Fold this sequence. Notes:
By secondary structure, the protein is α+β, with helices and mostly antiparallel strands. The chain contains 3 helices and 4 strands; from the N terminus they run βαββαβα. The protein has helices at about 15-30, 70-80, 95-120; strands at about 1-10, 35-50, 55-65, 85-90.
Amino acid sequence: xxxxxxxxxxxxxxxxxxxxxxxxxxxxxxxxxxxxxxxxxxxxxxxxxxxxxxxxxxxxxxxxxxxxxxxxxxxxxxxxxxxxxxxxxxxxxxxxxxxxxxxxxxxxxxxxxxxxxxxxxxx
Length: 123
C-alpha cells in the first residue's frame, strides 16, 4: 500500500449537506476498496486560478490516504462521472513527504494533549 494526496474541486453551488454527502461518497469509495484515510480537510470555497467549465470558484477537498495502487484507477474513474467534482488530482507521496506528514501529525497530537491538560488543570 502507498500513501497518496488527493485534491478535488467540487461545484461551488453545492449546499453544506450536499458537500458533506459528496465527501462521504469519496471517502467510502477509498475505504471500501481497502484504503485508509490519514487526513481529511475541507478547505472551503476558494477562487480558482482560472475559469474551469464556466466556474470561477470551487470547494477544495484535500484527502491524504493509504491504499493499494488499484484504488487510484477506481477513484479517477469515479471522479470522471461524479458530477459535483469538476477537477481532481491524485499524487503518490514520496518518503520525505510521508515522514513530514507523520511528524506534523504527532506534533498536532502533542499540542492537543497539552491543551487538554491545561484545560483540566484550570478547573
